[in-house]
Amino acid sequence: MEFRFTEEQQMIRETAEAFLREQSDAAAVRRAMATEQGFEAALWDELAGNMGWSAMHIPEEFGGLGLGAVELVALMEEMGKRLLCAPFFSSVCLGATAILCAGSEAQKTALLPGIAAGTARAALGWMGAGRDWSPSGVALACARHGDGWRLHGESHYVVDGHTADLLVLAARLPGEGLRLFALPADTAGLTRTWLPTMDQTRKLATLTLDGVQLGNDALLGLDEDAAEALQKALDIATIALAAEQSGVAQQVLEMAVAYTKERHQFGRSIASFQAIKHKAADMMLKAEASRSAAYYAACVADEALRGGAAGAELAQAASLAKASCSETAFFNAGSAIQMYGGVGFTWEYDVHLYFKRARASEAFLGAPAWHRERIAQELGL
Amino acid sequence: MKLQFSEEDERFRREIAGWLADNLVGEFAPLRFRGGPGDEHMYPEERKHWERRMAAGGWTCIGWPQEFGGRGASIEQQVIFHEEYARAGGPGRMGHIGEGLAGPTIIAFGTDEQKARLLPGILAGTELWCQGYSEPAAGSDLAAVKTRARLDAATGRWLITGQKVWTSLAHESDWCFVIARTDPESIGHAGLGFFLVRVRQPGVTVRPIEQMTGTSEFNEVFFDDAVCESGDMLGKPGEGWKIGMALLGFERGVSTLGQQMLFQNELDEIVRIARENGAGKDPDIRQRIADAWIGLRIMRYSAMRMLSGGADGSLAREAMSYKLYWAIWHRNLGKLAMDVLGPEAEIAESAPYGLSRLQSLFLFTRADTIYGGTNQIQRNIIAERALGMPKEPRR
After folding, report:
1. Which of B389, B391, B392, B394 to substitute to test the interface with A, most A CBs within 10 Å?
2. Which is nearest to A132 in space by CA: A376, A381, A367?
3. Res B247: pLDDT
């Protein structure tokens, strides 16, 4: 049984842990989150350019390192622990994965090396204004127009959509399903609006497309329904997000335990009270369970990326991991505030940053109930 | 990181699955899916016979080292064994306390003479064991045991007096291992001994406890100058706590992982009923079934993580949360079963109090979060040992 990180994967993980502890400390997170851009260029250049993180799951022939989803998940877990403010989830997990799942060889060759090197940052837009995170929720419209395409409408909740260089957008072709397009951020007719968010550590934008005209080369893959490719990309990104949530869950557990050990009331450390210990034990129980779910899902995503047999479980793996990790991250972050007591409610202490990230990620790409319903359907209910 | 078992392990899986398919037939066919938790009182004679069939096939004590008659099976293979056993509907094992608890403890702490004399009966499925730990005043606080052991200087025998409780299978057993106080002045962990006592003797009385299920798997066992022969103490006086705790380490080990297949059988039945009776259209039931499915899958991957953790067979720190996780999951499953059945959940199978499998599940799972360390004790263990939070004040 080798359901554990290999030595190489463990090394990636430890390197990330050490790097982020230094570079994504509370001061760095608070600096980045206060800006509209949401990240510091120097840090991004370091982790994407020098450390090669954005190249992790991109195949070597497209300028990547040719590793897989397990490595991606290992990084995301560490990023979650430190609330890294960087366009990694948007550009690598969502953008690059969508291109990997939908693009032609020529498009992958053209688009992925820049993302892998961190010199181009991608973002993926597919949501309409509603609550449907699946491909059926795409509201942006496209139509054939001469030799190319015309896009009209809005794409909502686009992570880092206001700062990305390259936008991958899903659009609905009436009666013919979905199409995915890749377009530069400076395309005429495209307006990008940054939205202030409750979780300031991850930035969202609305994209408005007013009759945007694109050549046929902007269409990712063939002129056929892209719903399946989009779903696959979303499921892989969902697994990456779940791993990040499990990192959040673990970190707030450790923070809260450390705090309660230091905090004295009634003449003893409050960590010695069973009321506190049992809360911490429940947090650990959930954190361990969610980590198991995220690692399993990573193995499935790995197979899905490589076209292996177990990749058929991708949808249920994504839903299992997302439902579990979302609940755990929110439960643990909420419990941590309670364990900190009054100071947990202050801006000064960092626990609210984790609580807000947990809330935002819980909803993003589908809340637990939505994913459980997807599983119920898979079970034939 | 990979999810698969090795090819060698898969060969082992085919071997045990094939043996079970060939042997769990004929006279043993009625035992399929019987005798598990909540049903342990069923078919005792047939299940003893089945133990001997297992032994003849070389399928008892597979995790023991080869020098003591086992197969020296790896942890992976032991899990596979338990999985396939449950998948095939293998009956609740009458010999599991000897195989999983008494045997490994004798191997770890016994003399060569004790090993040579006591292990073969466990291997052969002919000598059954039960566990004498808890007492009426020593439950979660096990170190509060009051049962006394007095050395008879003339014969070298120990004479045991006291009461044990919650003793599974005592009425079917040949042996009981007993933690008792050798030093009457002692309190707490000190002054305890670990005794191997024959159940069938005048000084031992077994009285079944009628449970809320109407059935009796657990017993009270009374010792009234019961004899422990001079060579049947394990370790020395004062070592009882150390040996007793080591034994609990075996209990929390690999055998609990195989139960997931039993859980899968139960969940499958609940899903089937929900599809048939329309409960599966209820949004709340759909959510809870999906949640149960997620929880069971997580148990599997957690088990696989634990198995991948240490090559020495020890389970990782994270394994401490496993009992708490499955106990809560299983208790919720019992309630879910009732809610899926709806009004039919109330109707028993037969008078006067013959419960269905799912009714027994519902009631018996209330014990899951109590025995083997209550949820509250488990949370203490997790907080103190895994998270390093300060210990409770203890004697």
Report:
1. B389
2. A367
3. 85
